[in-house]
Amino acid sequence: MLEQLRARLEKQGYTRRHRELRDVPHTLMFVQAGETVRRLIDHAHQHYGVVAGYYPKVERVAAIELPIWKDHLDGKLTREQALERIITEVGPPAKN
User: pLDDT per residue over 32-59, tens digit each?
Assistant: First the structure.
């Protein structure tokens, strides 16, 4: 799934010089891990991204991915719909 996300970002024009190519898949990995623990093991669990201060470092990406991926995990969006929404909201790379 993370490779699919990277491929979609590349299709939008992101290259290795863009942080989003790293941050978008990496942040989604943190979101999924945190929600898995929270939902299946400890309902009071705080995401590592919150506790360790990772989410503020990637604030824009986290703000996009957290609600979308939670909707996916809640069954409101298919995986495909969630990935497409993430890509759409991240948008193409900024023109320099």
Answer: 999 999 999 999 999 999 999 999 999 9
Q: Both tokens of residue 88?
A: 């759409």
Domain hosting 30: range is 2-90
Look at residue 51 in the predicted model and tell me its pLDDT. 96
38 and 54 Cβ atoms separated by less than 8 Å: no
Three-class DSSP labels, 39-88: HHCCCCCCCHHHHCCHHHHCHHHHHHHHHHHHHHHCCCCCHHHHHHHHHH
Parts of the chain with a pLDDT under 50: none
Rounded Cα–Cα distance for residues 37 and 55 (Å): 17
Has residue 35 been placed in a domain?
yes
Is 33 inside any structural domain?
A: yes
User: Is 96 within a domain?
Assistant: no
Residue 95 belongs to some domain of the structure: no
Query: Which pTM was predicted?
Result: 0.92
